[in-house]
Design brief:
single chain, mainly beta, Lipocalin, eight-stranded antiparallel β-barrel
Length: 159
């Protein structure tokens, strides 16, 4: 278990470093920093989504996490995203998100707390394609980075 935690932390840290790379494709929609009163245009994700699974493949490492009680993403109508996930320890994330007309999700992390290590340096998450119906959601990201291809798929059910 400690090996998985260390491995996930290394992968997450590597991704955060690579997110500043010029090789990453530009985001399709840039979230706004002030989300206090402006409603978002596309509300398809608004609500609380419980994590069923989170699969990540990056730099030759493949990880699959089965969601635990309390793991969720909360998307607000103001473009705020709150993440609570036990993948790799304890991750609490506060972000600002946007959905493009072609159903691509982008978000900007503004606060991350992973196992007590806090970062307030803004970082972009990779773009995710959205597939959803009334009670299920699948987010899929497949992007090239300077360190190799990064693939992630997160499955949810609506609470």
């Amino acid at each position: 278990m400690k090996y998985i935690l260390v491995l996930f932390s290394v992968v997450l840290f590597s991704y955060m470093l690579s997110s500043c790379s010029k090789d990453n494709p530009p985001a399709i929609v840039s979230p706004k920093l002030d989300t206090s009163t402006t409603l978002i245009n596309n509300t398809v994700l608004v609500g609380k989504w419980n994590i069923v699974s989170d699969s990540l493949s990056y730099q030759g490492v493949k990880l699959k996490y089965q969601g635990a009680a309390g793991d969720h993403y909360i998307f607000t109508k103001y473009g705020n995203l709150y993440i609570n996930e036990a993948f790799g320890g304890s991750i609490v994330d506060t972000a600002i998100y946007a959905v493009s007309n072609s159903y691509v999700l982008n978000w900007l992390n503004i606060y991350i707390n992973q196992n007590g290590n806090v970062s307030t340096i803004p970082t972009n998450a990779p773009p995710f394609n959205i597939r959803t119906n009334a009670d299920s959601l699948v987010l899929t990201s497949n992007v090239p980075t300077a360190q190799g291809q990064r693939y992630e798929q997160i499955k949810f059910i609506k609470q």
